[in-house]
Amino acid sequence: MKTAIVIAALAITATAPAAMASRGQAYPSPDGANLATAQPVQVQAASPADRQPQPIGKSRAQVRQELIEALRAGTIPATKTDYPPSPATIELNRTRYAIAERYWSKTD
User: Fold this and answer.
1) Taking every pair of C-alpha atoms in the chain, what is the biggest distance, in angstroms?
2) Domain membership flag for residue 106
3) How many domains does the chain have?
4) How many CA atoms does the CB half-sphere of 55 hold within 13 Å?
5) Cα–Cα separations (whole angstroms), residue 20 to 11, 13, 29, 30, 95
6) pLDDT in tens, 30-46
7) By residue range, what is the domain housing residue 93?
8) pLDDT tens digit sequence for 61-91
9) How far is it, in rounded angstroms, from Cα 47 to Cα 56?
10) Is residue 98 part of a domain?
């Protein structure tokens, strides 16, 4: 019984690579015979303008302006537990911002 299992396992492992290799892929032959059918790849050089790094995301000034607008609107929560901010928190934040804005205008 054990001998039959060993023979079957050897037969499967001996034929499996041949079955896998014959799936129709064109592998390069050792003598290079099928390399002549390969198509050349055309590479286009990028212009100097294309090589400039493109900005990703927002600029610092844009983020700062959005933060000021959110502070003015009162939509930034005061605590981590109040997200999204409740209407009461929004009103409180608007009042705090108005007081701070009056103070800032006096000190400039």
Assistant:
1) 98
2) yes
3) 1
4) 5
5) 15, 11, 16, 18, 73
6) 665 555 555 666 666 66
7) 79-108
8) 999 999 889 888 888 876 778 788 889 888 9
9) 20
10) yes
